[in-house]
Amino acid sequence: MCVGIPILAGFISILTIFLAESGASLTTNPTELITARLMAIVLGSVIGAVGGRLLYHERLQHLAIRRLRQTRIAMKKRRL
What we know:
Layout: H1 5-9, H2 14-20, H3 30-55, H4 58-79
């Protein structure tokens, strides 16, 4: 279960988006800028949540460790 996701939503605000783009000239329609930045933030958050879920999934960790051990053994056999 992803407990930290609701906390992330608290840090996203309109002021944050404008400050991130303060160096660039604002477009004539600030709604486009806000929408684009918000979509980038949401997409990045989703990718991060999926990546975190995969990293902490016990079954995937077990399979990855097993595969790494098999690869290490195969590489040692190849050197001999």
